[in-house]
Amino acid sequence: MFQNTYGRYDKTSLRFTRFLFKLFLNETAEKVDNIVKAALFIPCLSEHLYPESALNMVKVLQYLGVDIDYVENQTCCGQIEYNSGLRDEIVPVAEHFIELFSHKPCIVAPSGSCVAMVRKFYYDLDIRDNLKSARDELAGKIYEFTEFLVDVLQVTDLNGRFPHSVTYHDSCHLNRELGIYEQPRKLIRSISDINFIEMQDPDLCCGFGGTFSYKFKELSIRMVAQKCENISNSRAEYCIGADESCLMNIEGYLIKHAMKARTLHIATLLAKSLGL
Amino acid sequence: MRSAVSRAASKAVEKRNRTAGEYPYWQTMREQAHAVKRRVMENLDDFLLQFEEKCRENGIRVHWAQDAEEARETVGTIAAEHGVKQVVKSKSLTTEEIGLNRYLQKNQIEVTETDLGEYIVQLLDQIPSHLTAPALHLDRKDIGRVFHEKLGVDYTEEPAELLAIARQKLRKKMLNADMGITGVNFAIADSGCLCVVENEANARLSLGVPDVHVAVMGIEKIIPSFSELDTFLKLLPASATGQKQTVYVDVVGGPLFPAIGEGARNVHVIILDNGRSRILADPQLRETLFCIRCGACLNICPVYRQIGGHAYGWVYMGPIGACLIPQYNGISAGRHAPFISSLCGACAQQCPVQISIPHHLTRLRYDVAKQGYTAWWERYALKLHAFLCRYPLLYRALTWFPGKLQQLLPGDMRFPAPGYTRDRALGRFDSKGFRRRFLKMQRQQDL
Lengths: 276, 447
Ligand code: SF4
Hints:
The structure holds two protein chains of two kinds. Chain A contains 15 helices and eight strands. By secondary structure, chain A is α/β, with parallel strands linked by helices. The longest helix of chain A has 18 residues, at 217-234.
């Protein structure tokens, strides 16, 4: 949609498209205006442990001509507390989040489970009445990165190149709560020279599950062991994922047990393939 | 044990997926079943009364039981009334739930499980480890050993021979029994009929051969009429074993069923509450009563596959068990169960009646936390975190420091969770923080 004659996305052609839209189709113009301005929601794991993949997400988005808007004062979506049962404690956290983000036209995050938290589980919280409509709106405009690329920007032809074999792990929240299954696969397949191998049971849980991995260590380790076995059986060099927490868990096991494969966040994969 | 469970479970999943794939309207059927169950649960009292009335008309005697004890005693009274000495039972989780076997044995009544898997488990004096495959945790070597030790037959691990041994033993029990006890898969409200689904004919014999037949059912087993049965008779076997149809579908419409001229002479049905109406009262958790005990959620569950059914410590196990245990046994007694899950949601995806299990688990975790059962350190850590999240500047300041500190520490000590890092290294760890890097990047771009 925003491609210029060189097959590259850039801001100039984007501005021009926007101008044309504004000129001829009023409604769409607004939409175009909005989707090219994305606010970032950077979950805590990306902020503190793996900023690299979030930065790569930014690079890819900028490459596509999206204006990035970093929202100051963001903290956390409150998922850890939610999953541990401390719902009442995170009501103020959710309210803070809603107040911070609700006036943004569109929000992108590099993690499925945090998006699921906002989009679906905020409904379980007893938040202030005057914020309820803002919450509803927010649920409709917060996107996971691959979802944003494929469903909103309609990008499936990034023209990148990555001459390696990869497999893809479906993070549970991403896949089952948000129904994001095809989108990352489409993006991976669009990269040239890539060898995409599906592993056995790509949607099998990696066993992380937040505090689950700590409370039920043995169990969690057996689960991640199974996952890593599937990955190494696929003989792919990289396991791609779209949720940093699963990747942290998987890679931790791979490294500790001297297995060859490594993990790669899909944003990093895309950025690498584009040479960003 | 683990690998036996895991292998059996994944085979069951495979079969289930294949069969479900053959139904073009599988998703629609699930929605229908969910809707039927919802309608039943919302008007359960009406349906139950209708069922009772129709049963009476059919000559089935109806008993109500508020709790496990009342149900056991009802069985006891019926047994005394008919002078029962020997009982055959066909797989029924509900009787397992009320601990019927032990009660009958205490009253000098001999009980024999007639479902093959359940028979084996009984010989071992264990409880079932799966909803539809009670002996899932045993392989044929185990079974050969049990038969050898408990029945005094020669050791064999040949399935056909084992089956023949069990059949011979069970046939004798069957013919001598005074009373047969079964569960109920579906209770049909508008015609007062009991439907039992099975593969081995043991239920059919248990309800037909002895003089007295006692069916024990939970109040949630009702479906409105025969026209809804069709959907469930497709969903249940496909989800449980991957069969298109079970070998036997038994329908009891009263004593000495006139059309066929066979059946028990006395038919009793015990309608058990045992905490169910309490669950029913909660508009969200009510959904956990929709369960038709197919076991599909167990087979797909990566946690169940690793730990098997016994780890849950009760009759109902796996993801649905984790929902039911705290509800039946009380939050205090069942407070650990909702946490035995990574909330991956595979169970909800498989469930033929669309119970959204992980959502119920988080809801139950909330109930557990509300009653103050969270470990103190966890509660304080999370509360502190939640507090900091509201004050971004403070949050940033306080996360900056550990970040810096962690960079100075050696790899494994960076993450304050020794159990976590014992088998997992921390990979590319970078604690400069996204925000600062991003702002720096932007400044450079602007230049
Ligand atoms: S919860 Fe659903 S999948 Fe699990 S046993 Fe019950 S009906 Fe089957």
